[in-house]
Write a structure and sequence with these properties.
Helix content: over 70%
Oligomer: single chain
Number of strands: 0
Shape: elongated
Number of helices: 6
Number of domains: 1
Strand content: under 5%
Order of helices and strands: HHHHHH
Length: 174
């Protein structure tokens, strides 16, 4: 049989079709896998953003009601503002930030502002540790110090759950 026989031309054609089918399947599977991963990440980001919003709304509500006295005890004495005003104002801010995060409206901007809020209240947490103020079950220096370690996690939570880091990077490029 010569090189142009039906058997010889059919083999490579079949193989080429199979390779093409395999590559198309592989590309489809890969894009489908990436799409599912991105979809899952978006769902997780939304769930964590909403969870942070609910937590902030609850904390803000507690500032204005059942934990108001405890929060007043945590306001640093060096702060030149009335402790009750600070508690009420921070509670209102937490409620507003919480609702904003839950809504998803301009989430990256909301996450950035929330992260700044967590940074702004950090001196109060440091003061609670240094002045040995007992509140919310934090009745040892170790417990109050461990709480300090969680504040950067809250900042990261606000930034990561809202894609604020990517948004801030895009602002730098423009």
């Amino acid at each position: 049989m010569g090189p142009n026989t039906a058997k010889n031309t059919r083999g490579p054609t079949w193989l080429a079709e199979w390779v093409q089918s395999y590559e198309e399947f592989n590309a489809y599977s890969h894009s489908s896998w990436v799409s599912r991963l991105l979809s899952t990440m978006k769902i997780l980001r939304n769930v964590t953003r909403i969870a942070l919003g609910v937590a902030l709304t609850f904390a803000g509500t507690s500032h204005l009601s059942f934990s108001r006295e405890t929060f007043r005890a945590q306001v640093p004495t060096w702060l030149p503002l009335d402790a009750d005003f600070v508690v009420i104002a921070s509670g209102v801010v937490e409620i507003v930030l919480g609702i904003w995060l839950i809504s998803g409206f301009k989430a990256a901007f909301a996450g950035s502002i929330t992260a700044l809020f967590f940074i702004a209240i950090f001196p109060g947490n440091i003061s609670q540790w240094l002045t040995q103020t007992d509140a919310f079950g934090l009745n040892t220096d170790e417990a109050r110090f461990i709480r300090l370690l969680f504040q950067p996690l809250l900042v990261l939570w606000a930034l990561l759950s809202t894609s604020a880091i990517a948004w801030l990077k895009s602002l730098r490029r423009n």
